[in-house]
Design brief:
The complex is a heterodimer of chains A (120) and B (116). Chain A has 120 residues and is an all-beta fold. Chain A is 0% helix and 50% strand. Chain A has no helices and 11 strands. In chain A, a hairpin with a 5-residue loop joins β5 and β6. Chain A is globular, with a radius of gyration of 14 Å. Chain B is mainly β and 116 residues long. Classes of the chains: A mainly beta (120), B mainly beta (116). The interface between A and B is medium-sized, with 23 and 21 residues.
């Protein structure tokens, strides 16, 4: 299988604080992970591509200083929402895929269960 | 550029009715993959199917079936004899070879409500 977990599943924080969300691939190594954001009743929008051992690639319009991504190991990527504000409240979903060296299909991303962030 | 259009925002059906969710896509890639995901109220994305651009065979899995037609760039999803547990938001998605399948483009989703 290819299981991806996220922690926490739900977080409520005060405006101005920073929140860290973890994304882990549990039974496979992932050199590439992806972070998506979903507003209520909206589609998933790719925020950034997280590459193990290098800087993340951010999509146009996503503030890299606001959304810090660290991919320090082959099974863990973290997204830190810095100085969170109410407009950052959203559902954040990560995904991971097998590395090219695995010989496994590259087109399939395995999604985590999501993290619901509410900034008061 | 990739684009996925799900024109139906919300659909309501009575239990046991059949329902078809439409998906139309655009891509310049000749090699690409199409996906359907189910998102229940809990939020988790549940993978339903993956289909590559070279395989136009329709697929049936239990009450679910998919109709892929390259000529009309459509990948429609039919639920037969719908059940209340089918109530969810369904997303169609596309990933193309250009860029190494890194970018998955999602449609805006269709919210299906099955009324008992």
């Amino acid at each position: 299988g290819a299981v991806v977990s996220q922690h926490p599943s739900r977080v409520i924080c005060k405006s101005g604080t920073s929140v860290k969300i973890e994304c882990r691939s549990l039974d496979f190594q992932a050199t590439t992970m992806f972070w998506y954001r979903q507003f209520p009743k909206k589609s998933l929008m790719l925020m950034a591509t997280s590459n193990e051992g290098s800087k993340a690639t951010y999509e146009q319009g996503v503030e890299k200083d606001k959304f810090l991504i660290n991919h320090a190991s082959l099974t863990l990527s973290t997204l830190t929402v810095t100085s969170a504000h109410p407009e950052d409240s959203s559902f954040y979903i990560c995904s991971a895929r097998h590395p090219p060296s695995s010989g496994r299909p590259q087109e399939t991303q395995y999604f985590g269960p999501g993290t619901r962030l509410l900034v008061l | 550029a990739q684009k996925v259009t799900q024109a139906q925002t919300e659909i309501s059906v009575v239990e046991k009715e059949d329902v078809t969710l439409d998906c139309v896509y655009e891509t310049r890639d000749t090699t690409y993959y199409l996906f359907w995901y189910k998102q229940p109220p809990s939020g988790e994305l549940v993978f339903l199917i993956r289909r590559n651009s070279f395989d136009e065979q329709n697929e049936i899995s239990g009450r679910y079936s998919w109709n892929f037609q390259k000529s009309t760039s459509s990948f429609n999803f039919t639920i037969t004899a719908s059940q209340v547990v089918d109530s969810a938001v369904y997303f169609c998605a596309l990933s193309g070879l250009t860029g190494g399948y890194q970018k998955v483009t999602f449609g805006t989703g269709t919210k299906l409500q099955v009324i008992p």
